[in-house]
Amino acid sequence: MKITLVNKDDFGGGAAMACLRLFKALKVNDLDVSMLVQRKTVADESVKSTVHNKFDKYRSEFNFLYERLSFILKERDKSVRFAFSQANAGSDIIEEESIKNADLLHLHWVNGGFLSLDNINSLLKLNKPVVWTLHDMWPFTGGCHYSGDSEKFLNECGNCHFLKHPSPNDISHTGWSKKQAIYNSNPKITFIACSNWMRDMALKSSLLRGNEVITIPNPIDVNIFSKQDKILSRQKWGVPVEAKVILFGAANINHTRKGINYLIEALHKIRETESDMNQVIQVVMFGKSKDFDFKRIPFPVFSLPTINSESDIAEIYSLADVFVLPSLEDNLPNMVMEALSCSTPVVAFDTGGVRDMVDHCENGYLAEYMSSGDLAKGILYVLCDSGNLALNARAKILENFSYPIIAEKHIQLYKRLLT
């Protein structure tokens, strides 16, 4: 049984991280698995790149720029620049050895100029069993990665609110129509949703309604993401040992979907109502923060850049008393899983797949959607906890998301499809 995972990158972004972790989990089980990416950073020889020479490199860069520039001309404003992918540029990868040798292909995140819709169709025409993990909504929308308030994907995309000039036959309708044609001519795709919420959205969608969509979460290495000594971690990173530490992180903290404004409002509410805590609260933030005004935070802020080392990230989760994720839309956020695995309770809005990991008032707090007041209440609830939340946090991950558990679920699916 030869399996090839296909993802644009092997590092950077939630989907790349999730795909690489699945690859590692499957390798532990001695499965003949390889990973095909455009941009390779890891040394593992089983991870192959589609970039073999300078021409391939230039072509991949051109495809990325072409896709982005062609959308810039149509975007509503720059806040949605990376929220929509037309998949009108990409590379044909059917001649790659890891594709030709595979018994089964497992697609992950293939946007950003990696695979076009035509390239995806060519892969499906190879008549190999195909599994496609839904890291966001793109496979069943006209082009958006998350639909926001729009429910057009339930019927037929068009008049897209991400566009400057929406119309019934705009690029979202074109994308929806192309995907419909691809799925109709290639009906034997098995879709994996990382969360129950994503599965529900996929099964309601006009494009995937009637297809097989099963829920298998992403895995996590519980040996790397484990509780570190809190005092030593704080001393290493320069965080006051006696502080009540609130942690927030995102690839880009300015991204509207990550909900930073709700966190700021919640922190101001805590500042106004909890005077006895004002002197001990410390906020730690990590991720891309260009142009962000840290003066908006009413407590001392310790800002870290994007952290690439998983062991460093585990220390940062471990030094915190609570990790806050005020995302407005999310599938199965890696950061929530990582924090819980490090025994750090999580406060988040009750949205997307967060509830698959956070059990309300057991290992964290699920706040009312878009309520900064309830978010503040949740933060205080965790900060005042005696320690049971932290114990439950780690247990939740060990019982549901470890490498052996998630690898076995994938292996059983692969065997069924290849029988």
Question: Summarize this, please?
Answer:
With 419 residues, this protein is an alpha/beta fold. It has helices at residues 14-28, 54-72, 97-100, 117-124, 171-185, 196-204, 230-237, 260-273, 310-319, 334-341, 372-383, 388-400, 403-418, and strands spanning 2-6, 32-37, 47-49, 104-107, 130-134, 189-193, 212-215, 244-252, 281-288, 301-304, 322-325, 346-349, 364-367.
Describe the structure.
The protein has helices spanning 14-28, 54-72, 97-100, 117-124, 171-185, 196-204, 230-237, 260-273, 310-319, 334-341, 372-383, 388-400, 403-418; strands at 2-6, 32-37, 47-49, 104-107, 130-134, 189-193, 212-215, 244-252, 281-288, 301-304, 322-325, 346-349, 364-367. The protein is α/β, with parallel strands linked by helices and 419 residues long. It has two domains: 2-219 and 402-418, Glycogen Phosphorylase B (Rossmann fold), CATH 3.40.50; 230-400, Rossmann fold (3-Layer(aba) Sandwich), CATH 3.40.50. Strand 8 (244-252), helix 8 and strand 9 (281-288) form a beta-alpha-beta unit. The model has no long low-confidence stretch (mean pLDDT 95).
